[in-house]
Amino acid sequence: QVQLVESGGGLVQPGDSLRLSCAAPARTFMWYTGGWFRQAPGKEREFVAAIARTGHSKYNADSVKGRFTISKENAGNRMYLQMNSLKPEDTAVYYCAAAQPGSPSAEVTSYENWGQGTQVTVSS
């Protein structure tokens, strides 16, 4: 089990930016695929973005393309989600996740390790 800790959430206005951070033991994201998911009240957890352990392949959900960017540090101990042009519909708890090496997946069931989540609220 890999311990993941998210930070960086908060209350922002529409159009603002936030950067979420996911802290992990050293080299975690050198060996694991990394992913960000979110869950709004009353809805199922949904895929946001994923990054391969090499960092060469990245995938975004259609709803965040052009606005959100996933990245990670070379040391593999942090993963980020840069969120720009935030919208009220982006309001959710955001979760960091890590999966065994493989092609980045958008499926919740592909990820074995999860953080506790960080709240992002976009409201005027």
How would you summarize this macromolecular structure in one to three sentences?
This protein is mainly beta and 124 residues long. The chain contains one helix and eleven strands.
Report on the architecture of this protein.
This protein has 124 residues and is mainly beta. 3% of the residues lie in helices and 44% in strands. It contains one helix and eleven strands; from the N terminus they run βββαββββββββ. The strands form two sheets. Strands 2, 4, 5, 6, 9, 10 and 11 form a seven-stranded mixed β-sheet that branches. It has a four-stranded antiparallel β-sheet with strand order 1-3-8-7, with no helix packed on it. A hairpin with a 5-residue loop joins β7 and β8 (78-83). The longest helix is centred in the first third of the chain and has 4 residues, at 28-31. The protein is globular, with a radius of gyration of 13 Å. 34% of the residues are buried. The model has no long low-confidence stretch (mean pLDDT 95).
Can you count the beta strands?
11
Q: Globular, elongated, flat, extended or rod-shaped: what is the shape?
A: globular
* Uncertain stretches of 5 or more adjacent residues: none
State mean pLDDT (0 to 100 scale).
95
The residue fraction in helices comes out at under 10%
Radius of gyration: 13 Å
- Report the sheet-strand fraction: 35-45%
Structural class label: mainly beta
The run of helices and strands is EEEHEEEEEEEE
Largest sheet: 7 strands, mixed
Number of helices: 1
Our measurement of the CA-to-CA distance between the termini, rounded to an integer number of angstroms, reads: 39 Å
